[in-house]
Amino acid sequence: MKLNIKTGFLLLLPLTVLIVCCLFPITNKALFSVSEPVYKKDFQTDQGTFKGVCFDFYNKSEKTIRLVEFKMTVFEAQTGYPAFEGTGLITDSYSGQINGMEQRTIFIPLDDYGPAFDERDLKVDLFYISKIIYCDETQWNDYLGMTQE
Question: pTM (2 decimals)?
């Protein structure tokens, strides 16, 4: 088989694009930071004491946020099995105003995702912010959890 210049170029183009993308990754700069999420058995709120996941969210941008969407998996710490039926994947959101350069503690009650929990310990894994909607209606998205802080 005889290769001409055009065929050679078409064969090398995908390889070149792949190499460039690996060497110079396209980053989705995070304008926020989050603490490591932890499961709490006794988080105190105005409505009472709940079991759920808690983390600190810091808005590094100048814009005011109106919604933060996040994804995480929750497992039983002792067995490693999902805490809920299925995969244990949770998608939830926090709706509330977070001003620019402000930190907010966010709590996610887990009662809606399964039966009432006894005293078993749970572990949060694969936690990431998937969407932020600002008050000016602009959005930041990371559907695959690829953003690095």
Answer: 0.76
